[in-house]
Design goal:
The complex is a heterodimer of chains A (119) and B (320). Chain A is α/β, with parallel strands linked by helices and 119 residues long. Chain A has a single domain, classed as 2-Layer Sandwich (Transcription Regulator spoIIAA). Chain A has five helices and seven strands, in the order βββαββαβαβαα. Chain A has a five-stranded mixed sheet. In chain A, β6, α3 and β7 form a beta-alpha-beta unit. Chain A is globular, with a radius of gyration of 13 Å. Chain A starts with a strand and ends with a helix. Chain B is α/β, with parallel strands linked by helices and 320 residues long. In chain B, α9 packs across α10. Chain B is globular, with a radius of gyration of 20 Å. The chains are: A alpha/beta (119), B alpha/beta (320). Chains A and B meet through α2 and α3 of A and α8, α9 and α10 of B.
Chain lengths: 119, 320
């Protein structure tokens, strides 16, 4: 799973299906990032084709951990199928969703947004 | 096996009110504009082909009660919610010829919405009739006696004309009741509930209501996957959205449509019936829940076999 930093934001980019088999590695990667004080984390869904209830639970735990640490978790770049799953599950009310990476970074950090704009 | 739903709501009866009926009438009349409705056949055709279920009908408002006809000469009933009143009336009107006056009830648990129909189940008042109430709990008699006691109800339990017996079932073994093999499993719900697997002539029905599936559901060896394995029909408590079930309604003892689909796929079940509808959901909301669940089934299927999804309504009949 690709992980990179853009200024003070960590961007995690899982790929493929997030299901019973692939949720544990995502959660293992995500939770430590969100538990850091004032963590700013983006989960970029551009490469994700499906997310199950277990994956959504992992995102919820990440969002809760981030809030507890005075931080924030944002997801972005949902393809139509994944966006539909967020709508059906009502998880768009649980986890903050932005249309694209630029918007996600801008929601979290002006310096990360600027760094992304300038390549 | 033949299954008929007499009550499909959770928590509390939720009858359609006058405003709800008027709203349906307005929608239907607006839809009828431009249709030639010169005779009854044309009207029937318009109703069946031009209107959605929530427009032409209602999912109903009675709480859990499901009748299962195993072909045996005794009745088999799942829960005694308010739907039991209509079932009892049907039986007393001669609607079940060939059945003896023996009513085998599998009770999921003694919460109010699952027992409130007994005081209005007409056969309970008829001498010579026999009601056998089965369940995984050992204190069902206490719960059912209590709801008949003053000041809650005017007819004491001991005044019932029928002979009412209580039988605690051991979840560790299979039981033979009304011509079917019955297995049961303890479920996560306040005070516990029990799900049932009813098997007859190679066909299996799962009745799993008032059951919350928590983080353990992600485990490979989650026991409900085996319990549901290869079932022809899974009647499943899909009361809340996944977001509700995981957040503000966590530990309320109910589940979601997403978890329903995933468990059925993992178990290789053939048909899922959404059940225990939220009393706050109107017909449009339940129809949308069904539509969303059908979409999610297709999105999540991957290599699993296709799963048919239906939503229970008062009056729905299914053959297995």
């Amino acid at each position: 799973m690709d992980q990179r930093s853009i200024a003070d934001v960590t961007v995690l980019s899982p790929t493929g299906r997030i299901d019973l088999d692939t949720t544990p590695p995502l959660q293992d990667c995500l939770l430590p990032l969100t538990q850091v004080a004032s963590a700013k984390v983006v989960v970029d869904f551009a490469g994700v084709s499906y997310i199950s209830s277990s994956g959504l639970r992992a995102l919820m735990l990440g969002a809760k951990a981030a809030r507890a640490a005075q931080g924030r978790l944002v997801v972005c770049c949902l393809n139509p199928a994944v966006a539909e799953i967020f709508r059906i599950s009502r998880f768009h009310l649980v986890v903050e969703v932005q249309n694209d990476l630029a918007a996600a970074l801008a929601a979290l950090s002006s310096s990360a947004a600027a760094a992304y704009r300038h390549g | 096996m033949h299954v008929r739903f007499w009550g499909t709501r959770g928590s509390l009866p939720a009858p359609l009110d006058a405003a709800g009926v008027r709203a349906k009438l307005k929608t239907v009349l607006a839809r009828a504009r431009g249709h030639a409705l010169a005779d009854d056949a044309a009207i029937e055709s318009f109703i069946d082909q031009s209107l959605g279920f929530a427009e032409r009908a209602t999912f109903g408002g009675n709480t859990a009660c499901v009748e299962v006809d195993t072909g045996a000469d005794e009745h088999l009933i799942l829960d005694l919610g308010s739907g039991a009143r209509a079932l009892g009336n049907c039986i007393m009107a001669g609607g079940r010829p060939g059945k003896r006056a023996v009513y085998n009830v599998l009770l999921s648990h003694p919460h109010w919405d699952h027992i409130m129909g007994l005081p209005f189940f007409a056969p309970a008042y008829i001498p010579g009739h026999r009601i056998r109430i089965f369940g995984g709990h050992t204190d069902l008699e206490h719960a059912l006696r209590r709801q008949h006691a003053a000041p809650n109800f005017p007819v004491e339990f001991d005044q019932l004309g029928a002979r009412v017996e209580f039988v605690a079932l051991d979840p560790a073994r299979s039981h033979r009741i009304a011509g079917a093999d019955i297995g049961l499993m303890r479920q996560h719900h306040s005070g516990d509930s029990y799900g049932y697997r009813i098997t007859q002539n190679g066909r299996s029905l799962i009745y799993s209501t008032d059951s919350e599936h928590k983080i353990e559901a992600a485990a490979d060896a989650y026991p409900f996957v085996d319990f549901f394995r290869g079932a022809d029909l899974v009647i499943f408590d899909a009361m809340y959205s996944l977001a509700e079930a995981y957040t503000i309604k966590e530990d309320w003892g109910h589940s979601s449509n997403l978890v329903a689909v995933e468990l059925c796929h993992r178990a290789g079940a053939r048909r899922l019936c959404l059940f225990h509808h939220d009393p706050n959901a109107d017909d449009g909301a339940i129809e949308a829940l069904l539509s969303d669940t059908v979409k999610y089934e297709a999105l999540s299927r991957d290599s699993a076999a296709p799963l048919e999804v239906v939503a229970a309504y008062d009056g729905l009949e299914l053959d297995l």
